[in-house]
Amino acid sequence: MTSILLAMLLAGLLGRYMAEISTRQIDNDLTRVIAGIMVGLLVGMGVGTFARKTWGRFAKIDSM
User: Fold this and answer.
1) Total structural domains in the chain?
2) Is residue 36 part of a domain?
3) Three-state helix/strand/coil letters over the chain
């Protein structure tokens, strides 16, 4: 349970940071929101995949 919380916290913080950096130069608000959502989604998926592979090795669990 703690590992899931840690992965969610990392994904949230890293996603917010990356979305802020990537949308800093965009002037249109709607485009900025859509780009921020997409960047946050991609970072969250990346962190989730990394966490599943890393902690799966420690727990000796085969995932898909």
Assistant:
1) 1
2) yes
3) CHHHHHHHHHHHHHHHHHHHHHCCCCCCHHHHHHHHHHHHHHHHHHHHHHHHHHHHHHHCCCCC
**Is residue 63 situated within a structural domain?**
no
Q: What angle do CA 47, 51, 6 make, to 5 degrees?
A: 85
d(CA 10, CA 7) in angstroms, rounded, equals 5
In terms of average pLDDT, the best of 25-29, 49-53, 57-61 is: 25-29
- Give pTM, 2 decimals: 0.70
Q: Is residue 6 part of a domain?
A: no
